[in-house]
Hints:
Elements: E1 10-16, H1 20-32, E2 36-39, H2 48-51, H3 72-77, H4 87-100, E3 107-108, E4 113-119, E5 124-129, E6 134-142, E7 164-167, E8 182-186, H5 190-202, E9 205-210, E10 216-218, H6 226-234, H7 236-245, H8 274-284, H9 299-316, H10 320-326, E11 339-341, H11 344-347, E12 353-357, E13 363-366, E14 370-373, E15 376-379, E16 382-385, H12 394-398, E17 400-402, H13 409-412, E18 431-433, H14 446-466, E19 471-474, H15 476-490, H16 523-535, E20 541-544
Parallel strand pairs: 1-2, 1-6, 2-3, 4-17, 6-18, 7-16, 8-9, 8-16, 9-12, 10-11
Antiparallel strand pairs: 4-5, 5-6, 13-14, 14-15, 19-20
Bound molecules: flavin-adenine dinucleotide and NADP nicotinamide-adenine-dinucleotide phosphate.
Amino acid sequence: MIQAHHQSSEYDAIIVGAGFAGMYMLNSLKKLGLSVKVIEAASDVGGTWFWNRYPGARCDVPSMEYSYSFSEDLQQEWNWTEVMAAQPEILEYANHVADRLELRADIQFNTRVSAAKFLDGDKRWRVDTEAGETYICQFCIMATGCLSVPNTPQIDGAETFKGDVYHTGEWPHTGVDFENISVGIIGTGSSGIQAIPVIAEQAKHLTVFQRTPNYTMPAHNRPLTEDFREDAKDNYADIRQRQRESIAGIIGYGFGFGGSDTVEPTEAILETSAEEREAALSKEGFSAIPRYIDIGLDMSANELACDMYREQISRTVKNPQTAEGLMPRGYPIGCKRPVIDTHYYDTFNRDNTTLVDLRQGGIEKITETGVQTSQGQFDFDALVYATGFDAMTGALLKMDVRGAGGVKLSDHWQAGPRTYLGLQINGFPNMFTITGPGSPSVLSNMIVSIEQHVDWISDCIKHMAQNSLQLIEASAEAEENWIAHVNEVANGTMLTAPSCNSWYLGANIVGKPRIFMPYAGGVGTYREYCDAVVTNNYEGFKLSA
Ligand code: FAD
Ligand code: NAP
């Protein structure tokens, strides 16, 4: 449809990253007839699911919903084996998509983009790789991922540790055998909470260094039956539509809230008696808690839920001191990314698992043999960092990105990320960010958000070609207004509670500006905004020939 431009190193579009975002973007632009190249640091497709191969890694969204919807063939032919598939299966799916759509020929693997610069005179982007190659393109599309730059905290003495060291986000592809080995793990976010029960089963001993206890709910994961799959596939059109209109891109089709059969939370905890809460806890344990509709809206409701949560820990974990150590305090449920687990608290009933509650005395340094805290020295053979990521802005700011007039992205974002719709940045014409800060992204089933962004960008590029337009850029005013709206929507929610220190706020990275980064208005509402912008002739964007 569109005349492709491709002279050696010149492309219509360069896409950085070959995770689910980059793969679908490539497919969409190829279909439009553009010349496209994807540049990917990894040796294959899959992004998150290529890098995060730690024991226990799996998604926490039902796989029938955490999968591409754009191709009826794809969604009908793929058979997920579990409600929430494990990492190997998701990676296999990514590979299947790459094979099926013949994507690999247009992806350059093992190549990291070091810089992207807008050439004012040519109105083109120049993309440089660490290997010294240079590409010129009209559109530079960042599909670099929200959680793709692992964060390893700077701890004194880290380099002196004599054993093997791993990060969950860069797990060796050969796997790691922990049998007969004692292991220390730092971090109890989603990655740590998934890895801890599995490593504890393998290792001689596991020592868990926990700075902040998390609120985690049972996953209730289970195999999918053929009947369920067939039913869901028959209803896929409706399921996908409801996902797109939902808040988080998840409807829990067939599973309901908290993994059980009840669908929506309906009851207000503030209207329950102590006896009713006790009865709910006795019947359903942790899964009773997400049923209450007001815990995300009202701090006193939230505090009641936190009390229930701590009570359930004391019923699950046999050693009272360990139970106390695992109890979150001082921040609300719903402030951090929700975590779900399989046998997390039961793991602390094992003889070979020790909790080090760092609230009782923090890490002082890493030594040759382990971790020294103010509570004492803990020795082990191998150290696992489950310490998360420089989220949302990390991958973009790791590159030297410069827009019109040579303005650095790092300068434009000095006080925190600023975008229009999370799709574009004022001063950076023809550069798009898939699931960029300011979009629902990490607050949603990411594949729903990825597909919506890719479709929007593809439609935009098609519109530009059809109207002989060369440049698109978010206006400063639109960016300003959007960021104000992003803040307004998040303010007053648990996500921005003063006691909350989440990676959504950049609070996990030393020196990172404290700004709430994703858009909390829900994927359905957000989609309506994006569609209205198009209907209003790309309101807030400057388009020029
Ligand atoms: P990614 O998958 O992160 O891909 C980005 C790619 O860009 C990477 O391959 C990276 O190597 C490449 N890249 C980055 N910078 C450069 C550069 N400069 N040069 C070249 N290549 C570069 N989301 C959910 O919705 N549900 C889940 O259950 C869920 N589970 C998760 C579990 C884990 C362990 C993690 C870490 C994240 C999880 N997520 C989940 C979020 C997940 O990141 C997204 O769902 C999704 O996979 C993101 O796809 P993406 O293509 O946008 O980014
Ligand atoms: P994370 O949520 O940021 O957790 C990092 C953990 O490391 C926290 O417990 C943190 O403690 C701790 N930590 C960091 N620096 C430390 C230090 N210097 N000393 C002691 N502890 C330290 O990272 P993550 O667990 O990798 O998860 C990141 C995101 O990836 C998730 O929120 C989710 O979006 C996604 N993910 C999803 C799944 C899934 O279930 N599908 C699995 C893994 C990841 P503090 O809390 O005190 O900072």
